[in-house]
Amino acid sequence: MTDTAEMIHEDDLPGHESKLEPKPEWQPRYPGSGRLEGKVAIVTGGDSGIGRAIAALYAREGADIAIVYLLEDDDAADTKRIVEAEGRRAITIRADVGIKLECEAAVAKTIDAFGKLDILVNNAGEQHPDKDITDISEEQLARTFQTNIFGMFYMVQAARPHLQSGAAIINCTSVTMYQGSKELLDYSSTKGAITAFTRSLSENLVSEGIRVNAVAPGPIWTPLNPCGGASKEKLAHFGEKTPMGRPGQPNEVAPAFLFLACEDASYMSGQVLHPNGGTVING
Questions:
Q1: Is 267 a catalytic residue?
Q2: In the list 90, 97, 105, 125, which could disulfide-bond 80, CB 3.0-4.6 Å?
């Protein structure tokens, strides 16, 4: 398989938030209320976009954060400062979630730093637009599945020995799982797998007191799309087809991840929330 960094940088993915204009809105919109006080969370893809907004909101609600990211050291450092500005502890962990050993190392570093793990957010993902299925290379197909769904298996496998009753796992799926996407065939397929994984893992762990849920964002303004994850034609009208007529911001998605992580969602498992600009879907 092609070298990870080489393959990703053929189209600049996952992309630097520091270079994006306009900047995505990650700032929490309201004061914290201690809903995650004393908790420890791992957020994959936590350096930018939705992951940064989740880390910021979790920190405001009292959690210490392990920020797992692939390549963007500057973005990860910025997210670490954001968490620390909320009075919480943070560590940054450079890791490819598509590699099992690196997932195991990321969890081990989290336990070494904080002594426990309460919340696992599987947010890291990648996408590559292709107009025809024959344009999808074997390497791209394997890499997209490796990052988007294999990585979730690897992170959960590494985290499982440390998750006690009351813990939460939240996976990031997508509106494309429900609508389909003619330019994101491999990406949409992984998101379908993630939803099935979420429901099945919930059945597997619910008797242990561990809740597993997912969030399915619609078009959200993050580095993923403008840095190579969407065609120029799609970017020109990004989010306009939603009923709200605009793309969402990361801080409009993060509250769904907070709800599913805290005791407010104590009677929810195997479910998917849909911050997608008003698109009505089944499931």
A1: no
A2: 90
